[in-house]
Design a protein that fits this description.
It contains ten helices and twelve strands. The chain is of the alpha/beta class.
Length: 343
């Protein structure tokens, strides 16, 4: 009786048909005597060696790249929002003043070694206040355009969930989409990335911090998101994943993610990690956001050791130095180490 006939008997008519079966060869004996399946695990998930973001090529596995955060918000949890209500209250043109500060911050981050920037106009902290697309675009687009004009070779990502904001930012010079709800069923940003042929970061998120095994569940949901992106036409070399540290996860979940970072490599995609100044670090050390630099650096070193490709940070210089030191140990062959003097 065939599988389809058996399905008709027990009422299950929608079972998928087997594909890729290697027929049994009893005459050959040995292992060939029984049927098996062709291994197609790598057909759709081969990790690309590099990704083009804007004018730069990122070679994965070579080193840990550093993404600098530019928050164009009034309510960032980290206190660095460029629209903070007490910032330059006497400015005659507050919007122009914000853009000028953003360009200054971008220049400083570039000088400190940032490989790319991430610009966002809506806070994504737990319990954040949502803003509509027009308000968010008014915050983000002038900043993206100004930074791109000032630093045309520095790739800019836009951190948003809204296709209209993302499209306007791409028109202004952004070269990467960063979707903090990359695992959501709505594939509008995925389709935009496919249409515009730009890379996209698919970040894990949940509305509620409820898990049985956070690492396993994050990997499974990110893998499903990757498959949706591939099916929508996003290039295999244009998909970056982010486990979503702090998004829909309690502190214990975030610490479990850090302990299991190396398992994310099962996704065979470039991996971005954003832990900078987040509440889990503050809860572990009982420190406010502006005193969490050392904790962030510790996670950057853990990320480098686990093979993470990009760290997203507020404090660029300190994390660039930490990443380069860690990379010298875990990524560089001994023969490539610098020679010479000093104890």
């Amino acid at each position: 009786m065939s599988r389809s006939e058996a399905g008709a008997v027990d009422g299950r008519r929608e079972l998928p048909a087997e594909d890729g079966v290697i027929e049994a060869r009893p005459d050959a004996g040995g292992g060939a005597a029984t049927p098996s399946f062709v291994d197609r695990s790598g057909e759709s998930i081969e990790r690309s060696a590099e990704t083009r973001i804007g004018s730069r090529t990122f070679t994965w596995g070579a080193r840990t790249y550093v993404m600098g955060i530019v928050n164009v918000t009034p309510d960032s949890f980290s206190g660095d929002g460029l629209l903070a209500r007490d910032a330059s209250p006497a400015a005659s043109d507050p919007r122009a003043a914000v853009t000028e500060r953003a360009v200054g911050q971008a220049r400083r981050m570039a000088a400190e070694g940032a490989d790319l920037l991430d610009v966002g106009g809506e806070s994504t902290r737990p319990g954040h206040e949502q803003v509509d697309a027009a308000v968010e675009a008014a915050r983000v687009v002038p900043v993206v355009a100004a930074i791109h004009a000032a630093l045309p070779d520095l790739p800019i990502g836009v951190d948003t969930t809204k296709p209209a904001v993302a499209a306007a930012a791409l028109d202004a010079g952004a070269a990467l989409l960063n979707d903090v709800w990359g695992v959501a069923p709505d594939d509008a940003l995925i389709r935009l990335a496919a249409d515009r042929r730009v890379p996209i970061v698919l970040m894990h998120n949940r509305a509620e911090a409820r898990y049985r095994n956070v690492v396993v569940e994050v990997i499974a949901e990110l893998e499903a998101a990757v498959e949706r992106a591939l099916a929508a036409g996003v290039g295999a070399d244009a998909i970056i994943v982010d486990p979503g540290f702090g998004f829909g996860k309690a502190p214990a979940h975030n610490l479990a993610l850090l302990a299991g970072l190396s398992h994310l490599r099962l996704l065979r995609r470039p991996i971005l990690l954003g832990t900078s100044r987040k509440s889990t670090l503050g809860k572990v050390l009982d420190l406010p956001p502006d005193e969490r630099i050392e904790a962030t650096i510790a996670t950057t070193v853990l990320a480098a050791a686990a093979g993470i490709d990009i760290v997203r940070v507020h404090d660029v210089q300190a994390n660039v130095r930490a990443a380069r030191m860690a990379d010298a140990v875990v990524r560089r062959p001994p023969e490539d180490l610098p020679a010479g003097g000093g104890a």
